Structures are given as structure tokens and as C-alpha cells.
Amino acid sequence: MTRARAAAGSLVFLALAPGVVAGLVPWLLTDWDSTGPPLALQLAGGALIAAGAAVLLSAFARFVIEGVGTPAPPAPTEHLVVGGLYRHVRNPMYVAVAATIAGQAALLGRPVLLLYALAFVAVVTAFVHGYEEPVLSERFGAEYDAYRRNVPAWWPRLRPWTSAEASSGRPTDAAA
């Protein structure tokens, strides 16, 4: 796959997956109607949305540039993506989407979106454990196993992981 095809495929997947999950569904649940939450909650919500969007776009770009592929299972990357934010957490896209939904809940003062965010987290956790991790382990073998031992799935480690840690065979931070 060329990087141009990876970029095009990633853009389509961005619109279809996160676009629906963090855009269309929250709109269908709320009509973007606000309950007028306190300003501090609105500001926190806006910050979560902005951070989530930035992380999501960065992670998608990483799939194109480093992985030469897409996040979509039918068009996977040629290389394991372990750079950028992936040095801190294995699933930055899912964390970003959950943060975006939680940010919308705070910005709009809509608890239904918090419930939706929790449901999203439950579904993606099951998907990661039941599908993604076994597929990545089979596809990338020892490289993925070392990465998985050293980089937590959901809660970012403070110090970025380096490939030198992989050669040591020991995790340097607690990986979950």
C-alpha cells in the first residue's frame, strides 16, 4: 500500500468510525442541546474535546506515516505503529474518542453522553481483547509482545517507551 492510499483510506475510516461514534451518535442522543452547565464544566468539556480531536488526528496520521496503512481492519498497517503517542499508550484512538464523548457530556451538561461513553469503553475493551490483541500478536509476533509488555493499553505511561526497552525483555513501567 502506498502512503497516499493509506491516507485516503484513513480519511474514509475517520469519517465512518470516529465520525459516527463521536459525532453522529452524540448528536442523535442530544441534538446538541445544552442544559446550561456551569462555565467551568463547559470549559473542561471543550478542553477534552479539543485534546481528544488532536490525539485522534495525530494517531490517524501515525498509521499513515509510520504504519503505511489504516486503522481499519480490512486495510491494516504494514508495520507495527509504536511511535508518537503510541509510545505512551497502546490505544490512543479509543482513549481520544472516549475523552471526546465525555467532553461533549460536560460541555452540554448531558449525562446520557457519559453513559454512552461508558458503553463505548466497554465495547472497545472487549474488541481490543477479543480481536485486536490476538491479531496483532499473530501478525507482529515478538515485536508486538515486547510492546504490549511495556506500554499500557489504556492509561498512558509518563515516560515514552523506547525500542531499547524491548531488547531488555523487561517492562520498565507497569503495563496494563
Q: Helix coverage percent of residues?
A: 55-70%
Q: What is the straight-line distance between the termini?
A: 32 Å
Just name the CATH architecture.
Up-down Bundle
- Rounded average pLDDT: 93
Point out poorly predicted stretches: none
Count of helical stretches: 6
Number of strand segments: 0
The CATH C-level class name: Mainly Alpha
Q: Name the overall outline.
A: globular
How many domains is the backbone divided into?
1
* Biggest β-sheet description: none
Order of helices and strands: HHHHHH
CATH topology: Four Helix Bundle (Hemerythrin (Met), subunit A)
Oligomer: single chain
Radius of gyration (CA) equals 17 Å
Category from helices, strands and their pairing: mainly alpha
The percentage of residues in β strands lies in under 5%
